[in-house]
Q: What sequence folds into this?
């Protein structure tokens, strides 16, 4: 039996969730949509879902058991809090909130009500990264020593969205995926960051206190060093890549736009996994399928990222933002 879901927000990620549910998650059915812009629902394939301009009203649509929040970060707390109070399981896009105490309070509220609160770190469900993690744990490249993570987005969001007060800016809004990926892949915590903001192409972002490019250098417990490259002007496509150098070899992972995993050892460089060009949508579908299994009661054992993982990623991002402002390295507690 499918779980009735309300989708809050029909921006870029809201539409991704809508498509992912329709194509990959038969156990979820979007029966209501909340979107304040009157022209947007007409442009999205919402089927027979009821459209509400007000999220609070949408959360009270009859027959709902769950809520998917793809609205802007600065409204996450209010929507998630209301959904939990009503008794809905919640899947919320990253980050849950920008404030540690708020995120942990929401998690506590979910636990006290026996509800699922999952945060959308889709990289944990992306097939090439899952394969890379398996190879790491199998010792395919020995001990990891250097990691390079690249996220080049095709275009910058509107300047208003890049405002660090609203979204966390490039170091949080963009970077949280990379920080979570580091700790998930290596099973080790980032202990210190040093960041460099780079205003290279889109100078308009200076008006809201943000930049279009950034570098983050991270020290990881155990001695690994990581470099994160963030850009909002990839132009040709969203490009997400990962390179891990180990004591006995290397992993070269391409996630988007094309997906493959290459393993380099003393025997040479070979492609050990190759996928199509829909890895992003499939990964979002996989994380929503895990959410559906938990929300329906089909399983209680699935391990999914929640408030704790969001708090960690935001803490690293805030430390990076502090370092970018001061020019000095900043520890991450």
A:
């Amino acid at each position: 039996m499918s779980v009735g879901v309300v989708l809050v927000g029909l921006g870029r990620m809201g539409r991704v969730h809508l498509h992912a549910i329709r194509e990959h998650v038969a156990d979820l059915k979007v029966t209501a949509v909340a979107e304040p812009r009157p022209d947007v629902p007409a442009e999205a394939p919402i089927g027979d879902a009821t459209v509400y301009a007000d999220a609070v009203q949408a959360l009270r649509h009859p027959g709902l058991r769950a809520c998917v929040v793809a609205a802007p970060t600065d409204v996450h707390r209010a929507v998630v809090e209301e959904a939990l109070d009503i008794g809905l399981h919640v899947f919320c896009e990253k980050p849950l909130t920008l404030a540690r105490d708020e995120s942990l309070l929401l998690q506590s509220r979910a636990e006290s009500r026996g509800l699922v609160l999952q945060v959308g770190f889709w990289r944990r469900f992306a097939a090439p990264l899952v394969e890379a993690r398996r190879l790491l744990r199998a010792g395919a490249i020995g001990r990891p020593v250097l990691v390079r993570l690249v996220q080049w987005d095709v275009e910058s969001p509107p300047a208003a969205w890049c405002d660090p007060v609203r979204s966390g800016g490039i170091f949080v809004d963009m970077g949280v995926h990379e920080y979570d990926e580091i700790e998930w892949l290596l099973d080790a915590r980032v202990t210190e960051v040093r960041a460099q903001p780079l205003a290279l192409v889109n100078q308009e972002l200076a008006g809201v206190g943000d930049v279009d490019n950034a570098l983050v250098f991270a020290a990881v417990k155990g001695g690994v060093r990581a470099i994160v490259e963030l850009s909002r002007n990839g132009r040709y496509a969203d490009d997400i890549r990962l390179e891990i150098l180990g004591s006995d070899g290397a992993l070269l992972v391409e996630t988007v736009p094309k997906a493959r995993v290459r393993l380099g050892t003393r025997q040479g460089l070979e492609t050990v996994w190759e996928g199509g060009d829909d890895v992003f949508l499939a990964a979002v579908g996989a994380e929503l399928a895990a959410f559906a299994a938990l929300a329906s009661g089909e399983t209680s054992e699935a391990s999914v990222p929640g408030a704790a993982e969001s708090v960690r990623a935001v803490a690293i991002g805030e430390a990076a933002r502090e370092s970018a402002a001061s020019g000095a390295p900043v520890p991450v507690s």
Remarks:
- The chain has a mean pLDDT of 96.
- The domain at 124-278+312-331 is CATH 3.30.360.10 (Dihydrodipicolinate Reductase; domain 2).
- Residues 94 and 121 are 6 Å apart (CA to CA).
- DSSP finds twelve helices and 15 strands in the chain.
